[in-house]
């Protein structure tokens, strides 16, 4: 039973980590697009 609880917790932590990475990468892509647009404007 403890092993199942541990697995459940691990799966939740893994999903949360994937979600955070997805959000961070999405923000990073947005920032890069903004920087690229600014660079094009300066050129």
How would you briefly describe this protein structure?
This protein is mostly helical and 43 residues long. The protein has one helix at 2-42.
Chain-wise SSE layout:
Elements: H1 2-42
Characterization of this structure:
The chain is mainly alpha-helical and 43 residues long. It is built from one helix and no strands. The model has no long low-confidence stretch (mean pLDDT 87).
Structural class: mainly alpha
Count every helix, treating DSSP H or I runs of 4 or more residues as helices: 1
Helix content: over 70%
Round the mean pLDDT to the nearest integer and report it.
87
How much strand? under 5%
What string gives the helices and strands in order? Answer: H
Largest sheet: none
**Distance between the first and last residues' Cα:** 63 Å
* Shape by Cα distribution: rod-shaped
Total DSSP E strands:
0
Rg, please? 19 Å
Flag low-confidence runs.
Answer: none
Essential attributes:
mainly alpha; 43 residues
């Amino acid at each position: 039973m403890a092993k199942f609880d541990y697995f459940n917790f691990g799966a939740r932590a893994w999903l949360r980590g994937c979600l955070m990475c997805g959000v961070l990468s999405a923000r990073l892509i947005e920032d890069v697009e903004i920087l690229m647009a600014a660079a094009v404007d300066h050129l």
